[in-house]
Amino acid sequence: QVQLVESGGGLVQSGDSLRLSCAISGGTFSRYAVGWFRQAPGKEREFVASIPRSGGFTAYKEAVKGRFTISRDDAKNTVFLQMNSLKPEDTAVYYCAADKLAVTITSEYWGQGTQVTVSS
Q: Are 70 and 81 in contact (CB under 8 A)?
């Protein structure tokens, strides 16, 4: 059974940085595309960033381009989300997801989420 565990969330001020991590177990990590989604209070879960099985091409929500960077370390079975220049509107619970194809809102494997709060 594939399991995902996020870490690295917290309370920061506007302009600060955070690095989220998602450790994946129970499967061959290199066979999965991975990504990050977020859900703010009262809003639907939304795509943030993704990286395919082979690494390389990454995709980002327009609002985070240039500020967030997704990366993966297959040797450590971990995917990262480096978040710089954080804004109050980035406040949400952040979830990582894994899929043997592309990660989408309907992907099978999800973590439990980590809270990111950005104060102004």
A: yes
